[in-house]
Amino acid sequence: MKKINKSRMRYYDIIVYTILFVMIILIGYYPLWSQNLSLVWNIDGLGQYYPAFIYTGKYLQEIFIGIFNGQLKFPSFDLAIGMGEDIIGSLNYYGFGDPLNIFAILVNDRNAPYLFSFMIVFRMWLSGLSLIKYLSNFNLDKVAVNISALAYVFCGFSVMGGTRYVEWLSVLIFSPMILLGVEKIIYNKNFTLFIVSVMYAALCGFYFLFMISVVLAFYLPIRLLFQKKSFRIMILEIVKSIFAYTVGILLAAPFFFPTLQSYFLSERKSEPIQNIVFNSNNYIPNVSIKFDKLISLQAVEPPNFLSGIIILELLAVVLLLFLPNNRRKLQCLIFFVITFVAYSLPITGYLFNGFGQTNDRWVFIVHLLLSGILAYVLTEYRKILEKEFAQHKSKGKKINIIFSLTGLMVFLNIIINLWGVYSSYGYDWTKEFIAYENSEVYTNSPVNFSTKVQKDSELYRVSNDILTGINGRPENVAMINDYYGLSYWFSVINNRSQEIVDQYSQSSLKWRSYGFASHNTMNTLSGVKYYFSKEPLVDPTGYQLIENVSFNNQNWFVYKNVNFQSIAFVLSEGEQGRFAINNPEDRELLIKSRNDADGKLEDIVYSGNTFEIKASASLGEKLLLLVPYHENWNAYVNGKKVDPRIGPMNYMYVILDNGENSVRFVYSNPFIKLGLISSILALVMCIIFYIYFKRSF
Q1: Which range marks the domain in which residue 190 is found?
Q2: What angle do CA 41, 46, 47 make, to 5 degrees?
Q3: Rounded-to-integer distance, Cα 390 and Cα 286, Å
Q4: Are 424 and 472 contained in the same domain?
Q5: Is pLDDT of 658 > 60?
Q6: pLDDT tens across 378-408, in order?
Q7: Which residues contact residue 211 at a Cβ distance below 8 angstroms, ignoring those fewer than 6 apart?
Q8: Is the pLDDT of residue 357 over 50?
Q9: Whole-angstrom Cα distance, residue 665 to residue 635?
């Protein structure tokens, strides 16, 4: 009976939390809902996360259709992503691998902004639920836990960060679960939750997993020290945790390993680590904290993700000092001091980012800690009130009134914060979110309205001007409209691709490409057959106007590149030597090498991970495929495996045999295979451990 009542109480607490959460969403986000605005932020959200979400949905739909038709295909490369990218490597940071994005399979052109907005709200709700589960492990007051959960859900990291970058909300979900998993290991219950939580975190990407791993390096030893266990037992618990952590990573390896490979092969460069570690300025504390910047949400650049702290959370830190001394209080103080010192030191930002860069994206840990302290302080003061009102007949009612008023204060505090950032009375952040009714224009393309292009079945790329004057960021539109383009904007991109763009522009565009405008030679050398422009070309040399289309109530001019041959071509015998992309003479020499070749391309077919090419050649001539080189490509010439080489413009080439040639370029990511093997072995290990050690597993 007690178990049934406890279960009912747990569900009751979740229902109460959910009701309060929904009320805050309806009232706090009213400035958005009243204007029929989505939660798609018109900068990074629109340019990166939203198209990645749509792409993930379409990818899942293709797999489902394939299974239904008796075909099981999991492409790992897509020419439509950027100039051709590893799917997992480029999109994992945006949720390609996040288990929650299984819901993306429901996406279509009409419901995309609604589903995307729902997933943001759903993740926020889950993050609160996750914290409730974690805090409930410490037998804290249920009302206090619910209040803390609301403060956690609507903190600055969630509202200002998670709304901009939806995948940031995932760390708010798995962090409490990972910590709860550690608690279960400490108390010798089992480590299933820890394994699953680490696996989930690894599937979402290594970025925030690394951060929470740094936290674990402090959290676990401190928690063990307060359990009064022997040194041998402490070491054993740490070893068990490392083992479970490793198993969790291995279970996620099919996504985790390729993501790591793509990161290390990307063009992201960081300052030498010794310059960071041995820079004394990184250890000088900065304690100039402005509390008014912490207790309110602010739509400013750069955003302050530590903002949105509930006033009661700050008060709880002060009240903590006046509580009777015990082990829990001491642990709260230790964690708070460590966090406060860490926040004041510049080196912390580097540490949590693997010394690659510095920022405050790790402050979700601060919000998690403050929420925990709030729940603990409220619980302890409830005990004090119960003692004070021990002789009163209606003590329960009085205490409930006090806690209800406390909850109301937090509720109103959150509403005020949200209105302060979203309403016209505050920062009016609603201006940066797209309306549902206009959402399609951001994901559609004038390419879809061109009869000429739609009827052309040849393999080619399309280049275009900025698609809309509304957002000016159409870089990732091609991948969700089934054509091959040049523009992209991703945090992780093949360094060979970015070198092409940066050398051409003679500047670092930082993980993005706008294409090569109407530059005919560059477009020809990139396999561009059609160029879309909102204005007539001033210099149409090399182009022929073939069509006018209407898109977004604007007239677009469709030009055909008269110098286009294919997305691959044969080069004449001889070395091209060093090739400078920004050097016009080198580009013309490459065109000349193409025109002087005796051989020619006869046919090219692209499907998933494979290019099938038929070409004739004279002795020593090369086949240049206009796809940036990557270590995962394999090549076969007339059935013989050869190593593709880096050619002019960072594209890859193979040397052809004299006469007719059948060439295959196959993209095969070895880290996916290694990940699958590792995952299967880890799963088998879990099954064996479960059979023989059911109690501890």
Answers
A1: 37-282+301-431
A2: 135
A3: 46
A4: no
A5: yes
A6: 999 999 988 887 766 676 788 888 898 999 9
A7: 171, 352, 361, 362, 365
A8: yes
A9: 5
Task: Return the closest-CA partner of residue 212 out of 253, 172, 184, 251.
Answer: 172
The mean-pLDDT minimum among 214-218, 292-296, 691-695 falls in 691-695
Say whether both 403 and 550 belong to one domain: no
DSSP-assigned letter for residue 418: H
Cβ–Cβ < 8 Å for 480, 443 = yes
Q: Coil, helix or strand for 622? A: strand
Q: What is the pTM of this model?
A: 0.94
Task: Decide: 480 and 107 in contact? Cβ < 8 Å.
Answer: no
- Residue 20 domain flag: no
Residue 1 has pLDDT above 50, yes or no: no
**What CATH code is carried by the domain that includes residue 594?**
2.60.40
**Average pLDDT rounded to a whole number, residues 577-586:** 79
Question: Does 312 fall in a domain?
Answer: yes
- C-beta of residue 531 within 8 angstroms of C-beta of residue 463: yes
Which residues make beta-bridge pairs with 614?
603, 662
Q: Are 445 and 422 in the same domain?
A: no
Residues 592 and 656 in one domain: yes
Q: What is the pLDDT of residues 585-608, one digit of tens each?
A: 888 889 999 999 999 999 999 999
Structure tokens of 135?
A: 């805090």
Residue 273 falls inside a structural domain: yes
Is 9 within the bounds of a domain? no
Q: Are 271 and 335 contained in the same domain?
A: yes
Q: 63 and 123: one domain? A: yes
